[in-house]
Amino acid sequence: MTITILHNPRCSKSRQALQLLKDRGIEPGIVEYLKTPPDAAELGRILDLLNLAPRDLMRRKEPVYRDLGLDDPALGRAALIAAMTENPILIERPIVLAGGKAALGRPPENVLSIL
Questions:
Q1: 6: which DSSP letter?
Q2: Regions of the chain with pLDDT less than 70
Q3: Which sequence positions are flagged as catalytic?
Q4: Residue-by-residue DSSP string for 29-59
Q5: In the prediction, which pLDDT does 1 show?
Q6: What are the beta bridge partners of residue 29?
Q7: Per-residue 3-state assignment (H helix, E strand, C coil) for 61-97
Q8: pTM of the model
Q9: What is the set of domains in the chain, with CATH numbers?
């Protein structure tokens, strides 16, 4: 099974989730999503796997969230996904993908549920 982590090495929760995987002998593919963000189609797929709406995967305390007016309830799924692909700092992390499943590592132990 291929396991991938959307990772931000500066984030303590992301580092903890990666370490949990490594402690179990798993060497996941690491995607530093701030450098290589998912495109809109991939992000939509991830949201579907997580069973989340775009805002549920957004870091709402990031200044760019406020600056772009992303709290506007009139904004639809496509607009929010576009904002996240253009500003990947908005994407909550870490996200682990494994075997057609996804888990948000908040808390980091959540990632173990899909292994």
A1: E
A2: none
A3: 11
A4: EEEETTTS---HHHHHHHHHHHT--GGGGB-
A5: 84
A6: 4
A7: CCHHHHHCCCCCCCCCHHHHHHHHHHCHHHECCCEEE
A8: 0.95
A9: 3-114 (3.40.30.10)
